[in-house]
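Revision sheet: structure tokens.
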Amino acid sequence: MEQLTQLYDANVADPYFSIEESNHDQNQGLTQSQLNKFIQKLLTTIDLSKLTELYFQQLENTLPLSELKIQFEDNRVTFGKRAKNSHSKTLNCIQMGNTVAQMNYSFTQPLSLRDWQIVQQMHINFCSPFKNALEHHKIKQFAMKDYLTSLGNRASYNETMIRLANQSQRRHQPFGLLVLDMDNFKQVNDIHGHQVGDKVLMACADTILHSLRESDFAFRFGGDEFCCLLPDADNQTNNLIAERIRSAIESHPLLQQHKISCSIGSATYQEHDSQIGIFSRADEALYTAKQAGKNCTRAA
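Predicted:
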């Protein structure tokens, strides 16, 4: 499915059809030709973010739309900005009798009968590709998670690293990387078995996650090794978050019981840096922390 997404170039700035096209009955909604062009454009991508943006662009080109909000599961995406004295309409996207998304449309003026018919036509024809894109998004998210801890996996780390590196180069803003290794974890598996070891790993992952800022990312690399990517972070921020994690791991009741601590190495992405370079520096700092007696943090 990823190959399909990459094959097509969806230019959201291009209108799919012109509302000025010949329409013999101005009291009706879109013509079949207009609808076909709209549907064909939606079929050019299965990426959820691209699809929703395409939809907003066409609505904006066609109707007096000021804002579109799409609520699905625990997520909400918003396009545009709500105007003063706006006029709102809410429509649901239904699948098998269940609401999978709710879409709130805000307009700058009251809708004519024809405009309301157009909204409903576009909404109905958007729902089917939206549901497909949502399923694709769920599958992709599942494939990017570690099965045990629900943190990101290596594939997720690589994708996030590439995105942050590109952003850093464009905006000239640093970001941080923490590489963490659990101290004394091997003895837990050896003495108590993998079932207890899994509980310890889940406790470590949960503790790491709750020690981060909302904008940060946590990943399990495998075994007892974890990584964190920290957007808009310099050396000082890295050190503060690393120490927060180390302290939280050290004081966790279950981890205390099994004498689990963690060693952390940190590095900051620099101008003209590479993804391999920053990881190598953080990994070297982790090695230094281990050599220093474990349960400590070191910066590259």
